[in-house]
Specification:
Strands 2, 3, 4, 5, 6, 7, 8 and 9 form an 8-stranded mixed sheet that branches. Strands 1-10 form a two-stranded antiparallel sheet. 29% of the residues are buried. Helix 3 runs antiparallel to helix 4. The chain is elongated. It starts with a helix and ends with a strand. The protein has 6 helices and 10 strands; from the N terminus they run ααααβββαβαββββββ. By secondary structure, it is of the alpha+beta class.
């Protein structure tokens, strides 16, 4: 029996790998009960692999149908969807895929580029997501001015900040730097990033015409 056939029948290791990454990113929220469930899932996965290695995998197709729903139940207890994947060049986190552009362009052009990739400029829905993006951006920034567009603007009405999906900014989930937004001139679009920043507040408004890198976002694809 070929290795590829064996992998088709046995446990989806992508799920295990994604689950490990997801647990690491949400370590502070992992309870002993959830950890025990993850360990149990891993042991069950190992048992199935051992059965597949020592016997004909085809004999376990019925077991697979019964086993996988249980596995997915345990995986889905953790935040996000671990059994999902992203295209090459995108980064998976919390059931979403993120693309950090290398080229710089205006806010509008950046949004067009994100849409062409099947997503949109990122909408930040939680403190955890903000922290993930802040740390990632800080690592890849080349200098203090190397900031990234996010999907937030008040171009329709001054002072009324809307995400690209039309939803208003939740002030309890806003991460403006001190003295921001300053609403100076045509500062209608929001960028994030500060090379030396170690705090969550990393947003600032600027002209939408300024060239910046950007963060695209789209849902992760379910593994087959």
């Amino acid at each position: 029996m070929s290795i590829s056939h064996l992998c088709d029948i046995c446990v989806p290791f992508e799920c295990l790998e994604a689950s490990q990454q997801n647990v690491k990113s949400t370590r502070s929220k992992v309870t002993p009960e959830r950890l025990a469930l993850l360990v149990l899932s891993a042991l069950l996965a190992a048992a199935v692999v051992a059965l597949c290695v020592t016997s004909e995998c085809a004999q376990f197709s019925d077991f697979k149908k019964r086993f996988f729903p249980v596995m997915f139940f345990f995986f889905n207890i953790f935040k996000g969807d671990p059994c999902s994947k992203c295209e090459e060049g995108w980064e998976h986190h919390g059931g979403k895929c993120y693309y950090f552009s290398t080229n710089k362009s205006s806010w509008t052009k950046s949004r067009d580029d994100c849409r062409a990739k099947g997503g949109d400029l990122v909408k930040i829905d939680s403190r955890e997501e903000q922290e993930f993006l802040r740390k990632k951006v800080r690592r890849i920034m080349k200098d203090h001015e190397d900031k990234f567009w996010i999907g937030l603007t008040d171009s329709a009405e001054q002072g009324r900040w809307l995400w690209v999906d039309g939803s208003p900014l939740n002030e309890s989930l806003s991460y403006w730097k001190d003295t921001e937004p300053d609403n100076w001139g045509e500062d209608d679009c929001v960028m994030m990033g500060d090379k030396g920043d170690r705090y969550q507040k990393s947003w600032s408004d600027t002209s939408c015409k300024v060239s910046r890198r950007s963060i695209c976002e789209k849902p992760a694809k379910q593994l087959d």
